[in-house]
């Protein structure tokens, strides 16, 4: 991956990240990059929390991929830490290049480096292509993910 | 639920909580209450993190139920907080009494109180009875949950 680098997200990356969140079959109805204010407030909270790591993949100084890694302490599995991956997006112009796999492998390695015993994520059941992608990376679809909107 | 109360877990609850984690079809191979040291270390980390809330249901001064609620800040859904429920257990002697539903309803209300837009959890696909339980509480099984052991 010679033309890409992965780094911690900065405040000025929030516009490009939110455009990636909104440019998505499911995110389009839920996110709106026209008003960044709520996203900047959320970014400040994420950035101040040592258990959160929001990253971007950068190509030619532009964010073209993103994910959020959350490190969750717990009692189960002998007090194991778990790494949780959320909000994975790759810019439409950079899909199919192997970039998504590199980004997930990076998150797996970062979880390992932080002492996690497990990495977990959920994916909408309608995203069947995405499921094969995670299985190829070694993930097992062992769970059902439930959501309740408040 | 007149005979039960829900409160934040304390260090002295860790023995009873780990016994509940281990007294489970899946947890039996993963958890061992004979050595509490790794669990106490994990408890200290959970207890020090303002985004984590480990609770117990107490009956006659004994913990008979537990769950962990994690509040996760994120950018998606206009910078929404989400409440994540993990490690739900009810003591074998207290199952079928409606206590589990009360505990989950409590976690939903606590997530709402903290400003979350969503509550999420995953459940092993083999626990089909548990899935009906969450659907009755209003959860939608919209996602596939992937795990990768490190």
The second-level CATH architecture of chain A is 3-Layer(aba) Sandwich
What kind of oligomer do you see?
A: homodimer
- Our count of domains of chain A comes out at 1
What is the CATH homologous superfamily assignment of chain A?
Answer: Gcn5-related N-acetyltransferase (GNAT)
Helical proportion of chain A, percent range: 25-40%
Largest sheet of chain A: 5 strands, mixed
Keywords (chains A, B): Acyltransferase, Transferase
InterPro entries (chains A, B): Acyl_CoA_acyltransferase, Bact_Acetyltransf, GNAT_dom
Protein name (chains A, B): GNAT family N-acetyltransferase
Domain N-acetyltransferase (chains A, B): 4-150
Can you offer a commentary on this structure?
Chains A, B: This is GNAT family N-acetyltransferase. Chains A, B: It comes from Amycolatopsis nalaikhensis. Chains A, B: InterPro entries: Acyl_CoA_acyltransferase, Bact_Acetyltransf, GNAT_dom. Chains A, B: Keywords: Acyltransferase, Transferase. Chains A, B: Residues 4-150 form the N-acetyltransferase domain. By secondary structure, chain A is an alpha+beta fold. Chain A has one domain (5-136): Aminopeptidase (3-Layer(aba) Sandwich), CATH 3.40.630.30. Chain A contains five helices and six strands. Chain A has helices at residues 14-22, 37-48, 76-79, 99-113, 128-136; strands at 4-8, 52-59, 62-73, 81-90, 116-124, 140-149. A five-stranded mixed sheet of chain A has the order 1-2-3-4-5, with helices on both faces. The longest helix of chain A is centred in the last third of the chain and has 15 residues, at 99-113. The first copy, chain A, starts with a strand and ends with a strand. The mean pLDDT of chain A is 94. Strand 5 (116-124) of chain A pairs antiparallel with strand 6 of chain B.
């Amino acid at each position: 991956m010679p033309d890409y680098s992965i780094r911690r997200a900065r405040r000025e990356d929030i516009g490009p990240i939110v455009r990636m969140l909104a440019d998505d079959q499911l995110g389009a109805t839920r996110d709106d990059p026209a008003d960044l204010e709520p996203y900047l407030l959320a970014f400040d909270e994420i950035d101040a929390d040592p258990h959160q790591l929001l990253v971007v993949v950068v190509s030619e100084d532009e964010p073209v991929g993103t994910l959020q890694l959350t490190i969750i302490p717990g009692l189960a599995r002998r007090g194991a830490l778990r790494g949780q991956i959320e909000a994975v997006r790759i810019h439409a112009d950079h899909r199919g290049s192997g970039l998504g796999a590199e980004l997930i492998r990076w998150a797996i390695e970062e979880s390992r480096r932080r002492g996690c015993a497990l990495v977990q994520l959920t994916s909408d059941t309608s995203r069947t292509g995405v499921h094969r992608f995670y299985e190829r990376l070694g993930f097992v679809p062992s769970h059902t993910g439930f959501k309740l909107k408040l």
